[in-house]
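Task 17 of the worksheet. Students: predict the tertiary structure of the chain below and write it out as structure tokens. Keep your answer in the requested format; marks are given for formatting as well as content.
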Amino acid sequence: MSWGNSTPLLKVDLTSFVTHFEWDMAKYPAKQPLVSVVDTIAKQLAQIETDLKSRTAAYNTLKTNLENLEKKSMGNLFTRTLSDIVSKEDFVLGSEYLITLLVIVPKPNYSQWQKTYESLSDMVVPRSTKLITEDKEGGLFTVTLFRKVIEDFKSKARENKFTVREFYYDEKEIKREREEMARLLSDKKQQYQTSCVALKKGSSTFPDHKVKVTPLGNPDRPAAGQSDRERESEGEGEGPLLRWLKVNFSEAFIAWIHIKALRVFVESVLRYGLPVNFQAVLLQPHKKSSAKRLREVLNSVFRHLDEVAATSILDASVEIPGLQLSNQDYFPYVYFHIDLSLLD
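Model answer:
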């Protein structure tokens, strides 16, 4: 762990960033009091959290509105929207006397409908029915009649198990609904290229768990070996929400590791006192099964730093005065866990 000011890589995976960590002197000057450094980090993360809540709420609202519209087009003939099914040619429009109704007929009753619809009421236009669409349960038929017999026709239709769907063709309303669907789909695609915000390991959202680190001293300086074309294509095809998530995941992760470094420093001073005489190191077991063995070796090597803690590890009945944690969380050395499986 370094406290220098050399230029890091522009884009690295989480493990590489942690193992090559260098304190960012530009963002968090080491000469400032610790409380000022912590306050700077806290304000940065609070702003990210506020922005995330705002952007998430806006995206979820967009997603909900789109889902509600999509649900309307996925139900049965009794509930689904008909704006994407019917057309202007299916209706008699602009007539003072005539009107076209839509009737849902069960499939077993198709033949009965054809034979009886003209006689269900007076003033039904002969041969005016047409099948527009059908689903597993039934079909949607048109029928044209005089306006004055609408209620009588509906009543007789119910008696014969035919259902008149309450729908009146309004070209402006249908156009508005179609435009709203197209707008929501476009907005969602522009914000983010998939149907949901999913942070998954190995996904296109965060491939290989990368974090971006601004080169110290020159934010515009490109990464070594990165061509102009690569820099231009970086982020191509991504919506603003996805770009924001990538940038601020990096910012939050970098701030988090700085907090870990601060905790190691502060806890070590509190534990071992001044002058500062300790070394921070990173240890990563290759296998989960070797973690226990590593802990045993560390406890043996650093037992002399805190005999009471070392004893308590072997004997859970031994209490450490003033310790609020479980004995199993306290060691003769300062220890903090860093979980790099954040996106798994």
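Marker's comment: The first strand starts at residue 11 and ends at 13. Confidence is low (pLDDT under 50) at residues 2-9, 194-208, 215-234, 320-325.
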